[in-house]
């Protein structure tokens, strides 16, 4: 992609489109056609002019090109669709966690819980042989059931208090202790994808800016990449590399928050 640099006019710029005589000839034609000087200048600025096989763009054409370029960038980097996808995946993760919690509650709730009162009276009438076994055989102890219910209710309250925005949800879900293993795996996968996309965009931008770097900068980046490769290699081998040391050394080259 071509890079254009603009600077203040100092008289040294090469203007090959038209000479001064061409400009005055064009102005004279406009004035003879009925325009005053201000109107002729405005028309030339708006629509441009031609001269010796070349054509100078006017402001109107430049604005159209800017609008087209802006639309192309919007189509290429459709941030709204990206955020919508993240929001939908977060909603699905939260729904799966809710379903997992409710399933756990159903598992500890006996189906004949409402009929225990009648069973208990029958048991007493038969001589109390069934005393000391409330809830039927196979049911979890009441203390464990109450503890699990309290835990489930705390988690449901945390889910209900999650912010609507994707950023706030991600921040709170990072510290959330999932009860459903599938929801936890989906959230971890989403976080890994987001970090990979972030790194990919970062290194793409880094690559585009290499042409403006000095030899010292390039040497520093090369050393950072070697350390990063070693960090990834240790992680793939099942080790627990110290990311803190890496960020203490190279954190100035990364945006805030990447270590999370």
The portion of residues assigned to helices is 55-70%
Number of helices: 10
Strand content: under 5%
Low-confidence stretches: 114-137
Which class do the helix and strand fractions yield? Answer: mainly alpha
Shape type: elongated
What is the multimeric organization of the chains shown?
A: single chain
Order of helices and strands: HHEEHHHHHHHH
Largest sheet: 2 strands, antiparallel
How many domain modules?
3
Biggest sheet, strands in spatial order? 1-2
Mean pLDDT: 75
Rg is 35 Å
Entry summary:
With 260 residues, this protein is an all-alpha fold. It has ten helices and two strands.
Topology:
Layout: H1 20-32, H2 37-47, E1 49-51, E2 54-56, H3 59-76, H4 79-108, H5 116-125, H6 142-160, H7 166-174, H8 181-208, H9 215-236, H10 243-250
Antiparallel strand pairs: 1-2
Helix pairs in contact: 4-6, 4-8
What distinguishing features does this structure have?
260 residues, mainly alpha, 3 domains, 10 helices
Structure description:
By secondary structure, the protein is mainly α. Helices cover 65% and strands 2% of the residues. About 9% of the residues have low confidence. The chain contains ten helices and two strands, in the order H-H-E-E-H-H-H-H-H-H-H-H. The protein folds into three domains: 57 residues, no CATH class; 103 residues, no CATH class; 48 residues, no CATH class.
């Amino acid at each position: 992609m071509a890079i254009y640099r603009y600077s203040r006019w100092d008289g040294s710029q090469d203007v090959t489109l038209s000479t001064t005589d061409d400009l005055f000839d064009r102005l004279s034609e406009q004035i003879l056609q009925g325009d005053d000087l201000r109107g002729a200048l405005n028309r030339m600025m708006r629509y441009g002019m031609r001269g010796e096989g070349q054509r100078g763009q006017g402001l109107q054409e430049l604005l159209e090109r800017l609008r087209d370029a802006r639309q192309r960038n919007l189509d290429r980097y459709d941030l709204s669709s990206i955020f919508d996808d993240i929001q939908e995946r977060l909603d699905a993760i939260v729904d799966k966690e809710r379903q997992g919690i409710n399933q756990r509650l159903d598992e500890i709730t006996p189906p004949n819980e409402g009929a225990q009162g009648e069973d208990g009276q029958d048991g007493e009438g038969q001589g109390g042989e069934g005393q000391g076994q409330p809830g039927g055989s196979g049911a979890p102890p009441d203390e464990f059931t109450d503890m699990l219910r309290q835990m489930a209710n705390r988690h449901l309250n945390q889910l209900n208090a999650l912010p609507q925005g994707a950023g706030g949800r991600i921040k709170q879900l990072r510290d959330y202790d999932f009860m459903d293993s599938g929801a936890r795996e989906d959230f971890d996968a989403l976080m890994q994808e987001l970090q990979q996309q972030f790194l990919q965009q970062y290194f793409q931008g880094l690559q585009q800016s290499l042409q403006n770097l000095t030899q010292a900068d390039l040497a520093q980046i090369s050393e950072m990449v070697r350390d990063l490769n070693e960090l990834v290699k240790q992680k793939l081998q099942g080790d627990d590399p110290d990311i803190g040391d890496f960020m203490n050394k190279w954190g100035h080259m990364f945006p805030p928050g990447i270590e999370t």
